[in-house]
Write a structure and sequence with these properties.
It comes from Paractinoplanes bogorensis. This is Phosphotransferase. Pfam families: APH (PF01636). There is one protein chain. With about 240 residues, the chain is an alpha+beta fold. The chain has helices at about 45-60, 95-110, 145-155, 210-225, 230-240, and strands spanning about 15-20, 25-30, 35-40, 80-85, 135, 135-140, 165, 175, 180-185, 190-195. A 4-stranded antiparallel β-sheet has the order 1-2-3-4, with no helix packed on it. Strand 5 (about 135) and strand 6 form a beta hairpin.
């Protein structure tokens, strides 16, 4: 159905302008019910979108600042790959104190989602020590030496408690900061994994000790290389992962 599905949010629902930053999805500023919101059209299936929208509702009820799904006229949270969520005001983190606030927000996310089930079709870094595929990951497409390197990095995190991780909070474009709160946006990469993957932030804002930071940084670079495999960014991130 594509963007025609936006009509399910009301006769006055309309697209206004395309927003930058989206890679896997077509993201637009929209107006629904007389208010500005964000519409995102992608190819994720209903189970995936149910997990994500359910997570947003859970975090919102717990007091976190996140984009909240706006239901259609008949109460659905997504239609044919389209979701509409509240627009989050604010700008990217600009100071070390901003990034420390981001770290505190991430730790609250991890606390609130301990034990939450995995996103349908996804695999954690620990799962991928044995599994070959999961959503955007296909280890079979990588050279054996590269697979050995990323698995060695992830093995150092194995056995730790898990929670939902945002997936890319070090990207300033995925954070909206105001004086009152820190909001995390763009949850397209969120899944259940080791929380330290989220805490590799500019200036070590999370205050990890050197050994813990090294483990997290290696595992994070390995993850980014794997999910982006096939482009220059993936090659650059893999170069940060130590050879076994």
């Amino acid at each position: 159905m594509g963007w025609e599905a936006l009509s399910q949010w009301g006769d006055d629902a309309v697209r206004l302008e395309r927003m930058t930053g989206g890679v896997a999805n077509d993201v637009w500023r929209v107006r629904v019910g007389g208010r500005i919101a964000v519409g995102r059209l992608g190819t994720r299936d209903d189970a995936d979108l149910a997990w994500e929208t359910g997570l947003m509702q859970h975090l919102d009820r717990a007091g976190m600042a996140v984009p909240v799904p706006i239901p259609t006229v008949d109460g659905r949270l997504f239609v044919d790959g389209l979701t509409v969520m509240t627009f989050m005001e604010g700008g990217p983190p600009a100071t070390p104190d901003d990034w420390r606030r981001v770290a505190d927000t991430l730790r609250e996310l991890h606390r609130l989602t301990a034990g939450r089930p995995q996103r349908p079709g996804w695999r954690s870094s620990a799962d991928l020590l044995h599994a070959e595929t999961g959503t955007k990951v296909d280890l079979g497409a990588m050279p054996a030496e590269s697979v050995a390197r990323v698995r060695a990095a992830w093995a150092r995190l194995a056995g730790r408690p898990t929670s939902v991780v945002h997936g890319n909070p070090a990207n300033p474009g995925n954070v909206r900061v105001t004086a009152e709160r820190v909001a995390l946006i763009d949850w397209d990469e969120a899944h259940v994994d080791a929380p330290d993957l989220d805490l590799v932030l500019p200036g070590n804002a999370a205050g990890l000790d050197p050994d813990r930071h090294d483990i997290a940084a290696q595992a994070s670079a390995a993850w980014e290389a794997t999910v982006s495999w096939g482009d220059d960014y993936a090659t650059r991130r893999l170069s940060e992962v130590r050879v076994v």
